[in-house]
From TrEMBL, chain A:
Phylogenetic lineage: Bacteria, Pseudomonadati, Pseudomonadota, Gammaproteobacteria, Thiotrichales
Membrane topology: Multi-pass membrane protein
Alphabetical list of InterPro entries matching this protein: Bact_Polyamine_Transport (IPR051789), MetI-like (IPR000515), MetI-like_sf (IPR035906)
Keywords: Cell membrane, Membrane, Transmembrane, Transmembrane helix, Transport
Residues covered by the ABC transmembrane type-1 domain: 76-276
GO CC, alphabetical: plasma membrane
Transmembrane spans: 17-38, 76-100, 112-135, 155-176, 208-226, 260-279
Keyword Cell membrane found: yes
Protein name: ABC transporter permease
Family affiliation: Belongs to the binding-protein-dependent transport system permease family. CysTW subfamily.
Coiled-coil portions: none
Subcellular location: Cell membrane
One of the GO biological process terms: transmembrane transport
Length: 285, 286
C-alpha cells in the first residue's frame, strides 16, 4: 500500500480516519491539562465555569496561583539547580567518552561500549535504589573507620544529581559520538600540518565542529533531568524537585494550579525541543 | 607523540571508569550482596537466600511480579499494533513537508514530562472527567462513570507513554524499504495482506524488535503511570520495591526484588535479541 498503487477509496479513508484518531489520542491529554489551567473552578474538571488567570497569579489561601506558591517555586529552583549540574557533569564525561570510543582502539572496546550502554537498560527505580544502597554503605564504612559523617551522601540533592548523571551520560555520549564519527579527520590533519598544537586543534577545529551535538545533548540532558521521576523518587529527601512536589500534590487532590504549572512546563519544554530541532536542522545543512 | 597519545588515552579512560564503576557497577554488586544476606542479630548478617524464598512463599509478591510482566507484554503488543499503521503512514504514504510535520507531531508530546501526560489522562478518565461528561452528554450513560483506577486505565497510560519509542524505530526501518519492492510484489500478483506479510513485516523486523525491547523495559520499570492511573490496587512491582525500601525499610527484601526485576528485564531483552540475531549495540543505535 503506497500512493502509487490504487486502493479503494473506502480503505484510504478508513486509514486517514485512523491516523486522525491517533493524533487526537496523542494530543488530548495535553490539551485538557492546558485548558483546565484557565477554568474558574476549584477542581481541574468540568463544568467549565469561565476563564480565569487565578491559577497563575492569585494569592489567596483558597486559590493559590503558581507565581504566589513559594513551595512550588522553590521546587522549580531545586529542579533547575539539579538539572544544571547533571547537564554540566554529563556533557563533560560524555565528551570524554565520545573521544575515547571514536578516536582510540583498545582491548575489550566492544565490551566497554556495551557497558557504557548499560544504564539505559536498567530501570530508573533500580538505578535509584542501587545508588542509595551504595552511598549508604560508603557513608557507614567511613563512619566506622574514621568516625566522620559524610552528610552529603545521605539521600538529598547530591545523590539525586549523581543518580540522574549516571544514566543521562549514556544518552549524551551517544549524541556526541554520532557527530564525532561523521567528522572529516583531514581537517584536523591539515591543522597539524600547518603547525597547530593539539590544544589549538581541539579549540579551533574539533570543538566548533562538535558544538551542535554539544548543544543538542545539553538540551536533552537538561530536560531529562528536569523531568526525571523514577530515579529521583528513590534518592530525594526534604528538598524535593518539581516532579516530586507535583506528584505529592497530585495524590493529595489537585487544584488547577497543577494545570498551570504543567502548562508552563509544556511551554518551556516545547521551546527547548524546538531549539534542539533547529540545531539539528542547522547541523544537517 | 606516542607517549602523549597514551597519556590522553588514560585521561579519557579515567572519567569513563569512575562514572561506570562508582555509579553503575559497584552499586549493583552492593545491591546483590544485600539481597543475599539475612540479619541474624542486630548488626549481624549472614549469607542467605531467604529474601528470594520469601518472594516465592508470599503470593502477593510473586503474583505482583507475574502481573507486572504480563501487563508489560500486553502493553508492548498493543503499542506495536497501534504504532505500526501510523509509522507506515508516515514512512510510506507521505512525502516532504507533511511527512516531517506528522513525524514531529508524534515526538512533541514526549518532550513533556511523564507526570504531566499522566495528569492529562487523570483529568480525562476520572469520574468528573471529560470523557465521563461527554458520555453523559451524548446520552450513552445515565450517571457519572469512573474510568480511572482500573487495569484498562493503566494500559492506556502505558501505551501512551511508550508510543514514541515504538514509532521512531518503526519509521526509521520502514523508510529504508524501497517503494519498488512493494510495487514488484503487487506486479507479481500480491495483494495488501500478502505484501504486508511477506515483504513489509520481514523488512521491518529489526525495528519491531528494537521498539518492543525498549517499550517492554520502560513499561516494566514504570512507576508513575500504574501508581497514578491504577490507584491503590495497581499492584506494580516497582511499587513493591518502593514499599520495601521507603515504607518498610526492609532493604534486603527490596534489593532481592530489584535483582529479580533486573533479571526479568535482561532475560526478555536477551531473548528478543537472540530471536532476531541482533546485538544490544545495534538496537540502541536505531
Amino acid at each position: 500500500m503506497i500512493p502509487s498503487i490504487a486502493q479503494p477509496a473506502s480503505l484510504r479513508w478508513t486509514y486517514r480516519i485512523y491516523i486522525l484518531m491517533f493524533y487526537i489520542f496523542l494530543v488530548a491529554p495535553l490539551l485538557v491539562v492546558a485548558t483546565f489551567a484557565f477554568n474558574d473552578s476549584l477542581f481541574p474538571s468540568l463544568p467549565w465555569n469561565g476563564f480565569t488567570l487565578d491559577w497563575f497569579v492569585s494569592d489567596t489561601s483558597e486559590r493559590l496561583g503558581v507565581f504566589s506558591d513559594s513551595a512550588m517555586l522553590e521546587s522549580v529552583g531545586i529542579s533547575a539547580f539539579v538539572a544544571f549540574w547533571v547537564t554540566a557533569l554529563s556533557l563533560l564525561v560524555a565528551t570524554s567518552n565520545a573521544f575515547l570510543f571514536e578516536r582510540y582502539d583498545f582491548r575489550f572496546k566492544e565490551f566497554f561500549y556495551m557497558l557504557m550502554l548499560l544504564p539505559l537498560v536498567i530501570p530508573g527505580v533500580i538505578l535509584g535504589i542501587s545508588i542509595l544502597i551504595a552511598s549508604n554503605s560508603f557513608v557507614n564504612a567511613v563512619d566506622e573507620a574514621f568516625n566522620i559523617e559524610v552528610e552529603f551522601l545521605r539521600p538529598g540533592l547530591v545523590l539525586v544529581i549523581l543518580g540522574q548523571f549516571a544514566f543521562i551520560t549514556t544518552i549524551a555520549t551517544m549524541v556526541i559520538s554520532a557527530r564525532l564519527r561523521k567528522m572529516d579527520r583531514s581537517l584536523e590533519e591539515a591543522a597539524y600540518n600547518l603547525g597547530a598544537t593539539k590544544s589549538a586543534v581541539l579549540r579551533t577545529i574539533t570543538l566548533p565542529y562538535l558544538k551542535p551535538a554539544l548543544v543538542g545533548a545539553g538540551i536533552v540532558a537538561f530536560l531529562m533531568s528536569f523531568e526525571n521521576f523514577n530515579t529521583t523518587l528513590m534518592l530525594t529527601s526534604s528538598d524535593s524537585p518539581l516532579t516530586i512536589t507535583m506528584f505529592d500534590r497530585l495524590r493529595e487532590g489537585s487544584t488547577p494550579e497543577l494545570n498551570a504549572v504543567s502548562l508552563l512546563l509544556m511551554i518551556v519544554s516545547g521551546i527547548l525541543a524546538l531549539l534542539s530541532v533547529l540545531v539539528q536542522i542547522k547541523e544537517a545543512s | 607523540m606516542k607517549a602523549q597519545s597514551r597519556l590522553f588515552f588514560y585521561l579519557l579512560l579515567t572519567p569513563f571508569f569512575l562514572w561506570l564503576l562508582l555509579l553503575v557497577i559497584l552499586p549493583h554488586i552492593d545491591m546483590l550482596g544485600i539481597a543475599l544476606r539475612e540479619q541474624t542479630a542486630p548488626r549481624q548478617y549472614a549469607f542467605s537466600f531467604s529474601n528470594f524464598s520469601e518472594f516465592f512463599k508470599e503470593p502477593l509478591y510473586w503474583r505482583t511480579f507475574l502481573r507486572t510482566a504480563i501487563m508489560s507484554i500486553v502493553a508492548t503488543a498493543l503499542t506495536l499494533l497501534i504504532a505500526f499503521p501510523v509509522s507506515y503512514y508516515i514512512a510510506k504514504m507521505l512525502r516532504g513537508r507533511s511527512k516531517s510535520l506528522l513525524f514531529l507531531l508524534c515526538l512533541i508530546p514526549f518532550w513533556v514530562s511523564e507526570l504531566v501526560r499522566t495528569y492529562g489522562w487523570m483529568i480525562l478518565l476520572r469520574e468528573t472527567g471529560v470523557i465521563s461528561n461527554a458520555l453523559q452528554w451524548l446520552g450513552l450513560v445515565s450517571g457519572p462513570v469512573e474510568l480511572l483506577y482500573n487495569d484498562a486505565a493503566i494500559m492506556v497510560g502505558l501505551v501512551y507513554t511508550s508510543m514514541l519509542f515504538m514509532v521512531v524505530p518503526l519509521v526509521t526501518v520502514l523508510e529504508s524499504l524501497s517503494d519498488d519492492i512493494i510495487e514488484a510484489s503487487y506486479d507479481l500478483g500480491g495483494n495488501m495482506w500478502t505484501t504486508m506479510k511477506n515483504i513489509v513485516i520481514p523488512h521491518a523486523m529489526p525495528g519491531i524488535v528494537s521498539g518492543c525491547i525498549i517499550v517492554f523495559m520502560m513499561t516494566l520499570g514504570n512507576y508513575l503511570t500504574p501508581n497514578l492511573l491504577g490507584g491503590k490496587d495497581s499492584l506494580w512491582f516497582t511499587e513493591q520495591i518502593y514499599t520495601q525500601f521507603i515504607t518498610r525499610f526492609n532493604w534486603e527484601l527490596g534489593s532481592a526484588f530489584g535483582i529479580l526485576l533486573l533479571l526479568l528485564s535482561s532475560l526478555i531483552v536477551w531473548l528478543g535479541l537472540k530471536l532476531t540475531k541482533q546485538t544490544l549495540t545495534s538496537t540502541m543505535a536505531s
